[in-house]
Structure formats: structure tokens, C-alpha cells
Request: fold
Amino acid sequence: MKTIIAACVASLALVSTAASAGPFIEKGDAGYSILTAMDVTHATTTIRGSLRGADSVDMYAFNWKGGAFTAQTSSNFDPMLFLFTSTGNKVAFNDDHISLQSYIGLDLAAGKYLMAINQYSFNYGGSVTGFANAPAFRGNNGNYSINFNSAINAVPEPASLGLLGVAVLGLALARRRKHG
Ligand SMILES: [Ca+2]
Ligand SMILES: [Ca+2]
Reply:
């Protein structure tokens, strides 16, 4: 039984390590179109990046597990926040929620999405293709973080596999005990 408990604890430790990876930091400069959006490459509750001059829009691609979704900006400039489907259909937009900071909250179906952040008063014309004007808009230089209520890009498989592994191990030990 001790062995099984130890295996359970080890398995849970692996699962929680995978779920609590640190912030995703923008590498170089995230793009501003469906094709150039930067992939968030690990499960995280925070994206951090910067906007500099002609780099006036950053767009990120991520997977959402489904359910209640919130995204809140924190920045030293006046941000605007956008959520699109992976094919560029607008899901949500917010400029100012608390003070000048942006907030998006909704029940979001599982799938791949694009999140973009830029600066007031960039006019994107209500469409993802409106970001093509990004280089022409010169905002202030600044740093931002986008914080999520739950890990984006969370991969559910490791948790299921971990539990499955524990079940298989438990069965194997039980069988060995019977034979021994
Ligand atoms: Ca950037
Ligand atoms: Ca704002």
C-alpha cells in the first residue's frame, strides 16, 4: 500500500508541475496577424511582453480547455484587449474596465483562440485584418502582462495519463500481491 501511495503522490506531483509552469514571455516580437501570432508554448496563467514604437500590436495563439474565461491586463500604458477565434472571428473586445486596464470575461468553448493587445487609440475597424495597420500606429513604449483566471494552453492529457498510470500501477501491484 505504501508503494501505491508513493506512486500516487509522485504522479500528482508530476501533474501539478506541468500545470504550474511560469509566465510565457514574448520571444522577440509577437506578430499581429493570424499567420504571425506567437504560439504560447506551455500552460500558463500569464503572458508578458512589450510594445515598442511600430511594434504596436502583439497577438498570441493559445488553446483553451473550455469554461469560464477571464483575461485581465496590467500595463504602464493604456491597453486594449481583443479575443478572436483561430480563424479571426471577433469573440470579445475591451478597452477600459478598471481605470484604463482591459478585461475580457465570458464562458468560452474549448478550442484555439487568438488574443491581441495594443494601445488606445489604435482603430482596428472591428476585424482582425485591421491590425495590418499596426506598423503605422506609433504608440508609447511599454510593458504588459495578461493574466488569466486559469491556465491557457493547458494540456489535459498529462493529468489523465497520470491518473491512468496510477490505476494501471495499482492493478499491477494488486495482481502481484495475489500471486505472491
Ligand atoms: Ca511586442
Ligand atoms: Ca484601455
Notes: The CA atoms of residues 83 and 160 lie 29 Å apart. Residues 78-80, 95-96, 100, 102, 120 surround calcium ion (ligand 2) (CB under 6 Å). Helices lie at 2-19, 157-179. The chain is about 25% helix and 35% strand.
